[in-house]
Amino acid sequence: MRIERRFTKPEQSAYAEIEFRKALSEIKNPDGSVVFRLDNIDVPAQFSQVAADILAQKYFRKAGVPARLKKVEENDVPSFLWRSIADEAELAKLPEAERYGSETDARQVFDRLSGTWTYWGWKGGYFKSEEDARAFRDELAYMLATQRVAPNSPQWFNTGLHWAYGIDGPSQGHFYVDPFTGKLTKSKSAYEHPQPHACFIQSVQDDLVNEGGIMDLWVREARLFKYGSGTGSNFSMLRGEGEKLSGGGRSSGLMSFLKIGDRAAGAIKSGGTTRRAAKMVIVDADHPDIEQFIDWKVNEEQKVASLVTGSKIVKKHLEAIMKACVNCEGNGDDCFDPALNTALKREIKAAKKDAVPENYIYRVIQFAKQGYTSMAFNTYDTDWDSDAYLTVSGQNSNNSVSLKDNFLRAVEADGDWQLTARKDGKVLKTLKARDLWEKIGYAAWASADPGLHFNTTMNDWHTCASAGAIRASNPCSEYMFLDDTACNLASINLLPYRREDGTIDIAAYEHTVRLWTVVLEISVMMAQFPSKEIAKLSYDYRTLGLGYANIGGLLMTSGIPYDSDEGRAICAALTAIMTGVAYSTSAEMASELGAFPDYDRNAQNMLRVMR
Active site includes 493? Predict the structure, then answer.
């Protein structure tokens, strides 16, 4: 492919015309204590403090970056794309504490990303010449530094650590399809093939411990969360509570396993940072346990309310009982006998009226009798990251109910709805569709979950329907495709494309769309995946997601109301241009490198959706 330069010049650094500044990034607790601090970092001058903080706190590699590097020669790769490793001889000359450290300059991050994409693009035959590869690398570095585009978080976390610094580690159980042989391969390295994809859809079978089953899913999810990705699964194959097992017992039901997955997700910080794991749970509307699933977060929210209110009520009464004992002027043990201490009797009665457990009432009296004047009793609050929410389940996933048109028609007609067994399809319960619909509405109002998947519509827009149905989505639901596939994303910031006179630089916008469509395609080629199935299907279908951000900022800067015909027209035009250029670029790559492996079987479906 030929790569045009629009933002950079040959024989000049991509950053030549970009001003950088020194910055400080830190996180403090409410009491002023410092949690994180990184001083004297270099960021583009246009970066806000928030942007600098996100880069420093989330995306800078914090450890293992060698202070001295050397290049590794590769005969089939231009020298400017040779990867780097630690220069052990030079490092030995430094004090041990100075040999390895953190990234401290934004250019290190931009270079490792743009360099890695170009390195793999060169190996994959995406460029006509070395100059095209140089232009590609420089244009990407410039766009990152000027906040024109941002890839999804796993790219920032993982991409380039091996190429730029030689950082590596033992395999984490990932797989990839060798782009040169087409062979499914088990990874031997943690970072040589990075995990750049943010969005995964994973299948789960009704099997407890075997590959592809319930416990295996938690392992696959852990691989994704560790490297900063998110995942969604449809759990409708799992038997409902009380359904027969092959060994003669009864299933503990869907919810018991969802709670295990919820705890596992809550224990893993996404990408090793403070970012929470991203997880989507989908259940079909005809599952036997659908009612419990819908009510899950409603009930857990009620538990939090009970913990918060109850803890404060109990603390208030226990302190009053302790005070009645301590301030008593009676003789000997009289102060601890409610028959002789009227104040104590009054406080015990008040505590019992508010349902304070008797064992706590008499425990505090015993404490006072031993000479204590206070008793610690923790209270809880409704902060989303508080101990109250950590105590309950269901807090680490987005939950959605998958509906087909037949359910919606039953709601319209006030018809019956059947919940069916997973193995033999036997009807286990019949209820009114409107009752289930009302339950969904109330739960969403009370706890913000569940969301809805309109599955019939999703499959009407399915571009690869010949390969199977869409059953699930990633956590944010912008990616809806086959089970056991993945998508990597990037977002174009629209505001930098607005000229001073209010017009939009369409040529620059189209240039950006073209290059980043290539970036995302290369990212599929270089990636590793958490399972054999995802590695194979991601290679076969090569899904990617390019979008834009800051449409609101673009419109408001131009004085155009967000909710206006003009605003919608601009949004539609930009979307159409992005779609057209991305399709054109995809066709261009296919003409030179070949279409994705399962294209022929799905060609008519793709044309149907496009039309």
Answer: no
The reply to whether 478 belongs to the active site is: yes
536 contacts 177 by C-beta, under 8 angstroms: yes
Amino acid (1-letter code) at residue 355: A
Residue type, 555: L
Residue 42 burial class via C-beta count within 10 angstroms: exposed 0-12, middle 13-18, buried 19 and up: middle
SS (H, E, C) 106-168: HHHHHHHHHHHHHHHHHHCCCCCCHHHHHHHHHHHHHHHHCCCEEECHHHHHHCCHHHHHCCC
Q: Which helix (H) or strand (E) holds 546?
A: strand 544-549
Question: N- to C-terminal Cα distance for the chain?
Answer: 28
Exactly one of 17, 211, 478, 592 is catalytic; name it. Answer: 478
User: Which 3-state string (H, E, C) describes 393-411?
Assistant: CCCCCEEEEEECHHHHHHH
Q: Show Cβ contacts of residue 580 under 8 Å, excluding neighbours closer than 6 positions.
A: none
Q: What is the pLDDT of residues 110-136, one digit of tens each?
A: 999 999 999 999 999 999 999 999 999
The single residue of 474, 488, 550, 602 carrying the catalytic annotation is: 474
Pairing of strands 427-432, 416-420: antiparallel
Among 534, 459, 487, 463, which residue's Cα sits nearest to residue 202?
Answer: 534
Whole-number Å distance between alpha carbons of 262 and 192: 30
Residue 138 and residue 69: Cα distance in Å, rounded? Answer: 21
Please state the domain extents for the chain: 20-62+102-147
- Between CA 244 and CA 557 the distance in angstroms is 62
Whole-prediction pTM value?
0.88
What does the pLDDT look like over 77-94, one tens digit per residue? 999 999 999 999 999 999
Give the model confidence (pLDDT) of 571-591 as tens digits.
999 999 999 999 999 999 999
423 close to 414: Cβ distance less than 8 angstroms: no
Distance (Å, whole) CA 520 – CA 534: 17
- Which of 431, 533, 440, 449 lies closest to 486, judged by CA? 533
Q: Mind spelling out the 3-state secondary structure of 161-224?
A: HHHHHCCCCCCCCCEEECCCCCCEEECCCCCCCCCCCCEEECCCCCCCCCCCCHHHHHHHHHHH
Of 476, 571, 588, 605, the catalytic one is: 476
